[in-house]
Amino acid sequence: MDPDAYVLHQVHPAKLGADVAASLFSTALLWRGRPRPALLVRYGVPAIASIAVIRWADLAVLRTTRRGRYVLAHMPPWAIAARLAGDTVMAIGAARRSRRLVLLGGLAILAGWSDGAIVRVGL
Predict the structure, then answer these.
(1) Which residue from 58, 91, 106, 119 has the fewest beta carbons nearer than 10 Å?
(2) DSSP annotation string for 45-103
(3) Is the pTM of this model over 0.90?
(4) Residue 21 to residues 41, 44, 68, 76, 98: CA-CA distances in angstroms?
(5) Burial class, 6, CB count within 10 angstroms (exposed 0-12 / middle 13-18 / buried 19+)
(6) Neighbours of 70 (CB within 10 A)
(7) Domain extents in the chain
(8) CA 56, 85, 51 angle in degrees (round to 5)?
(9) How far is residue 62's CA from residue 103's CA, in Å, rounded to a whole number?
(10) Can you give the pLDDT at residue 117?
(11) How confident is the model at residue 122 (pLDDT cuts 50, 70, 90)?
(12) Taking a C-beta distance cutoff of 8 angstroms, is the pair 112, 82 a contact?
């Protein structure tokens, strides 16, 4: 298996679609007070999509795409952690029906994807 498969699979269209759809649907379910199906969707769908994409997709093709190069260069562990933390904050916000927490979680997810937009000044 490609050693970069775990990073590359994050930008595969099927994986991105599954993640976004699961997050939106789960957030709506949590907002409506349905935690069991919401958590099953929120964590089950992305896990199944990850397994399927890593196992069956041709991830080597992604290596040469703009998004593949981006994720290989700009997806350090802190960025993955920020995205996961943001998703958790969104879930808590939806369960509490707090628009602010949902928005804050969404901003944390965006921060996790924005490593390449951060300008670093060497000292």
Answers:
(1) 119
(2) HHHHHHHHHHHHS-GGGGGGSHHHHHHHHH--HHHHHHHHHHHHHHHHHHHTT-HHHHH
(3) no
(4) 9, 12, 21, 24, 20
(5) middle
(6) 14
(7) 5-116
(8) 10
(9) 30
(10) 80
(11) low
(12) yes
Measured between alpha carbons, how far is 96 from 33 in angstroms, rounded to an integer?
9
| Nearest residue to 92 (alpha-carbon basis) of 106, 80, 111 | 106
Tens digits of residue pLDDT in 25-77? 999 999 999 999 999 999 999 999 999 999 999 999 999 999 999 999 999 99
The tokens describing 83, both together, are: 């995205």
Tokens 């804050």 belong to which residue? 104
How far is residue 51's CA from residue 76's CA, in Å, rounded to a whole number? 21
Residues listed for the chain: 123
For residues 111 and 13, give the distance between their C-alpha atoms in angstroms, rounded to a whole number.
20
CA distance 23 to 94: 11
